[in-house]
Specification:
By secondary structure, this protein is of the alpha/beta class. The chain folds into 3 domains: 3-188, Rossmann fold; 191-264, Helicase, Ruva Protein, domain 3, CATH 1.10.8.60; 284-388, no CATH class. Helices cover 46% and strands 7% of the residues. It has 16 helices and 7 strands. It has helices at residues 3-16, 24-36, 53-62, 84-89, 106-109, 125-137, 163-168, 174-180, 197-212, 221-229, 235-249, 257-264, 284-311, 349-363, 368-375, 379-388; strands at 43-46, 71-75, 114-118, 139-140, 149-150, 154-159, 184-186. Helix 14 (349-363) packs across helix 15 (368-375). The radius of gyration is 24 Å and the shape is globular. The relative contact order is 0.09. Bound molecules: adenosine-5'-triphosphate and magnesium ion. Magnesium ion binds next to helix 3.
């Protein structure tokens, strides 16, 4: 087939499945989706938060022979560890306290269709063995049952974690990792495909405008330049939110650079606003070096705080000191999203933790995934703590 024909076919496919993007990276991804969709092969989709992993998973399912059956989406990071197996594989009546009925798990519900296991990196290691088995031959057992069942399910998994690193730190089974990564669709961050920013912008503005009866009056070149150069830590999701907010708040005006700055302010730009932290993509080696360096700085800070506490009898100001760190490579990295917490006599560790969680949830407008990332804890731990502190 000639290149032109393939291009037309690809664009029609993107239109049908609502996949925006003309960058080379996106074109390649769409080609892989077209190749794998008709097969039953397991696909691992990786990439930062908000890059479009679910969009890709949905397109694979929709373009497959399973499209008439449903795609069941499971967020492995949001299910408490204690019940994850019964959620995935189901359980028999009386198999644990409270199991008053037998119940199908997500795999059985997805029989004949697709299961999308989001945040696969959060799957507990014990459950990973059972998952591997179901991947190999479709076999599993409900919790509390000794009978093997079989399902016909296509698996798509996604993660924003570096699974290789998870294997290295023994949080992820190597056999499962190798099994999963045979087809790996890696979606680059938005800053790695800046050419697509204007396309996303145009489509989001058009769709949102039409849906909400807002006439979009255009955007200046300078303003579009700012959007294109922005770092987009939240990727396409963040861009969509910015477009929608601007359309609502600046309704009835052509968007200028000043307008755009208001929406990107307080976040990370590509160096335009000099007072803000600059993010520089790191190699795995320098990232690891930085982690060790940070751990050492944190340790030293903790020891100094403890010393202070002992000397001043607890009346000192305990600062959570994680200021901008110049890594060994000379790069400047972000301030960890923690703020100084004034310590009053008698303020407990729990209270400080609670305040940090509230602060982080406020900063990320309730987005638990981003809040968990900024606090450097898993989303599951954050869910547990939100419950524990009665913050919902
Ligand atoms: N190529 C794309 N075309 C159209 N919309 C996209 C594309 N990529 C992302 N989006 C939009 O961006 C938002 C985030 O996408 P999605 O939920 O698929 O990201 P994700 O990688 O799964 O994020 P997370 O890791 O946080 O779960 C959604 O509103 C989605 O529609
Ligand atoms: Mg997702």
């Amino acid at each position: 087939m000639r290149d032109g024909d393939t291009g037309v076919e690809r664009m029609a496919f993107q239109e049908e499945h609502n996949i925006i993007g003309e960058s080379l990276e996106m074109q390649e991804i769409v080609q892989v989706i077209q190749q794998v969709a008709p097969t039953d092969i397991t696909v691992l989709v990786t990439g930062e938060s908000g890059v479009g992993k679910e969009v890709v998973a949905q397109a694979i399912h929709a373009a497959s022979r399973r499209t008439k059956k449903q795609m069941v989406t499971v967020n492995c990071g949001a299910i408490p560890e204690g019940i994850i197996e019964s959620e995935l594989f189901g359980h028999e009546k009386g198999s644990f306290t409270g199991a008053s009925d037998s119940r199908k798990g997500y795999f059985e519900l997805a029989d004949g269709g697709t299961i999308f296991l989001d945040e696969i990196g959060e799957l507990p290691t014990g459950t990973q063995v059972k998952f591997l088995r179901i991947l190999e031959n479709g076999e599993f057992m409900r919790v509390g049952s000794s009978t093997t069942k079989k399902v016909d399910v296509r698996v798509i998994a996604a993660t924003n974690k570096d699974l290789e690193h998870e294997v290295y730190t023994k949080h992820f089974r190597p056999d499962l990792f190798y099994r999963l990564r045979s087809v790996n669709v890696r979606i680059p961050s938005l800053r790695e495909r800046r050419d697509d920013v204007s396309l996303f912008f145009a489509r989001f503005a058009k769709d949102f405008g039409e849906k909400n009866n807002i006439t979009f009056l255009g955007i200046s070149d300078e303003a579009m330049g700012l959007l294109t150069q922005y770092y987009w830590p939240g990727n396409v999701r963040e861009l969509r939110n910015v477009v929608e907010s601007m359309l609502v708040i600046e309704n009835g005006r052509r968007l200028t650079a000043d307008d755009v700055r208001k929406y990107l302010k307080g976040s990370h730009t590509n160096g335009d606003e000099r007072n803000l932290p600059v993010y520089i993509p790191k190699s795995a080696e320098s990232a690891e070096r930085e982690l060790i360096y940070r751990a050492l700085v944190d340790l030293k800070t903790d020891i100094m705080d403890m010393k202070n506490l002992l000397i001043n009898g607890g009346a000192s100001t305990a600062l959570v000191r994680r200021e901008t760190i110049s890594g060994a490579s000379g790069e400047i990295h972000d301030k960890a999203f923690v703020h100084p917490v004034p310590s009053e006599e008698g303020v407990s560790l729990e209270e400080m933790e609670r305040k940090m969680i509230i602060g982080s949830l406020q900063k990320y407008e309730g987005n638990r995934r981003l809040a968990a990332q900024s606090l450097k804890i898993s989303e599951r731990t954050l869910y547990r703590k939100i419950k524990e502190y009665g913050l919902q």
